[in-house]
Amino acid sequence: MGKMFAAVTLGIAIPFLAMASTYEVNIKDHRFDPTTLTIPAGERVKLMVNNLDPTVEEFEGENFDVEKIIPGKSKAAVFVGPLEPGEYEFIGEFHRDTAKGKLIVE
């Protein structure tokens, strides 16, 4: 029964995740690159955050709800939205002075 539930759940989740638009952002020298991403309003998108630094970082939305720990030299998917049009700030929690970025939602 548990395997059937998992198969049904994955069968529903995989098409949804495959449909999300994907955007990439790198962390290098405790800075985001690019620092600004433009994403569509009203859609859920996937951010692939690639931490090129050897140290851990936490990707965190300042005015939207996202938190994700990303170990050094690894990457993680972060799902965002759907968001209303506007500007949303994100930071690297462990390097707030340098790791800053912005989502432009339009």
Write up this protein.
With 106 residues, the protein is of the alpha+beta class. It is built from one helix and nine strands; from the N terminus they run αβββββββββ. The strands form two sheets. It has a five-stranded mixed β-sheet with strand order 3-9-8-5-6, with no helix packed on it. A four-stranded mixed β-sheet has the order 2-1-4-7.
Q: TL;DR of this structure?
A:
The chain has 106 residues and is an alpha+beta fold. Helix content is 17%, strand content 48%.
Secondary structure: number of strands = 9
Distance between the termini: 44 Å
Regions with pLDDT < 50 over 5+ consecutive residues? 1-10
Please give the order of strands in the largest beta sheet: 3-9-8-5-6
* Topology order in helix (H) and strand (E) letters: HEEEEEEEEE
- Residues in β-strands, percent: over 45%
Broad structural category:
alpha+beta
Count of helical segments?
A: 1
Oligomer: single chain
User: Could you estimate the helical fraction of the residues in percent?
Assistant: 10-25%
Mean pLDDT: 88
Radius of gyration: 15 Å
Question: Major sheet, described briefly?
Answer: 5 strands, mixed
**Inertia-based shape:** globular
Label this structure with key terms.
single chain, 106 residues, alpha+beta, five-stranded mixed β-sheet, four-stranded mixed β-sheet, 48% strand, globular, disordered N terminus
